[in-house]
Write a structure and sequence with these properties.
295 residues, TIM Barrel, seven-stranded parallel sheet, two-stranded antiparallel sheet, 11 strands, 41% helix
C-alpha cells in the first residue's frame, strides 16, 4: 500500500511534505501512558508508514512519556533524508497519567533536549508549542509570549529549525507570528468542529500549514449516521471519508491520522485516493451546520 499520487504536498518550514502523514500518539500504552503492549508491532507500523511514502511524522516526548520517540528512533534511525519529524512541547505527564502544563523556561529547555536525545537528532525540524488550556482539547485565551520567546531563543541557538503552535486561538496565532515565524498550526478540526474555518483559510492564504487533530472527535450519533451513509455509498469507511473531506477542504491541511494497527494504517493511507463529488461534499459540509445548530 502506497499513498495515492493525487494527495499532493505542502510546505512545512523549508521542507515539502506529503499531505497524508502519520501521528505517533497511539503507539504508546493505553491513555498514551506507558509502553505499548507489542513494541514490535508499533515499530512495524512506523516502518510501513515510511515505506508507503509517509514523510511527515508527528510525535512528542510526553507521549508515554518518553515512549513514542524511542520507538521512532529504534524503527527508523538513521532517518531517510526526506522524513520530517514534528514534535510538541509544553506539557508533562504526572505519575497518575495526568496531562500538566510545562511552560517554564527550564521545562521547555529540558523538553527540547529530551526530544533531541530520544529521537537521536541534532536539531528538531519543527517544534510546536502546545498550549494546555480550555479543557481537554480546546484552546483558551492568554498570552503565549513567554514560552514562545523561550523556544525562539532555542531556535536561534540552532536546536530548533522551525516553530509551530498547537491548541491555540486566532489571537494567539497572531501574537505568535509577531514573536517568531510560525510554519504550522495544529488544532482540533473536523467535519463537526469547524470553529477554525476562518483561521484555516487565513493560514492557507499565507502559506502556513494547518494540521487538524481528532478527525472524528466529538461526533453525535446523527452526524455519524450521515457520515456512515456517505461512506457506504462510496465503498469506504467513515474514517476514510472524514480524512478525504479534510484533504478536499483546503490545500494547506496536513493530516496525521494515528494508529497502532497495520490494517488501519493502510486504510488511512487509502483515504488519499477517495474522490468526493461536489454533491457529497455539500452533504458532508452540512454536518458542520448541524453541529453549530446543536450548540
Amino acid at each position: 500500500m502506497t499513498i495515492p499520487g493525487n494527495v499532493g504536498s505542502f510546505p512545512l518550514g523549508t521542507r515539502s511534505v506529503g499531505r497524508l502523514g502519520y501521528g505517533a500518539m497511539q503507539l504508546a500504552g493505553p491513555g498514551v501512558f506507558g509502553p505499548p503492549r507489542d513494541p514490535d508491532a508499533a515499530r512495524a507500523v512506523l516502518r510501513e508508514a515510511v515505506a508507503s511514502g509517509v514523510d511527515h511524522i508527528d510525535t512528542s516526548d510526553f507521549y508515554g512519556p518518553h515512549v513514542t520517540n524511542g520507538l521512532i528512533r529504534e524503527a527508523l534511525h538513521p532517518y531517510p533524508d526526506d522524513l520530517v519529524i514534528v514534535t510538541k512541547l509544553g506539557a508533562r505527564r504526572g505519575d497518575d497519567a495526568s496531562w500538566n502544563p510545562a511552560m517554564s523556561a527550564a521545562e521547555l529547555t529540558s523538553a527540547v533536549h529530551d526530544n533531541l536525545r530520544n529521537l537521536g537528532l541534532d536539531a528538531l525540524e519543527v517544534a510546536n508549542l502546545r498550549i494546555m488550556g480550555g479543557g481537554a482539547h480546546g484552546p483558551s485565551e492568554g498570552s503565549i509570549e513567554e514560552p514562545l520567546t523561550v523556544l525562539a531563543e532555542l531556535q536561534r541557538q540552532g536546536l530548533i529549525r522551525h516553530l509551530g503552535l498547537s491548541n491555540v486561538t486566532p489571537t494567539q496565532v497572531a501574537q505568535g507570528r509577531g514573536i517568531a515565524p510560525i510554519v504550522c498550526v495544529q488544532n482540533l478540526y473536523n467535519l463537526a468542529h469547524r470553529e477554525d474555518d476562518a483561521l484555516l483559510d487565513a493560514l492557507a492564504a499565507d502559506g502556513i500549514a494547518y494540521v487538524p487533530f481528532f478527525p472524528l472527535g466529538g461526533f453525535t450519533p446523527l452526524q455519524s449516521t450521515i457520515l456512515s451513509e456517505v461512506a457506504a455509498e462510496l465503498g469506504a469507511t467513515p474514517m476514510q471519508v472524514a480524512l478525504a473531506w479534510l484533504l478536499h477542504r483546503a490545500p494547506n491541511i496536513l493530516l496525521i491520522p494515528g494508529t497502532s494497527s497495520l490494517a488501519h494504517l493502510r486504510d488511512n493511507l487509502a483515504a488519499g485516493g477517495i474522490a468526493l463529488p461536489p454533491e457529497v461534499i455539500a452533504r458532508l459540509d452540512g454536518i458542520g451546520s448541524t453541529a453549530r445548530q446543536a450548540t
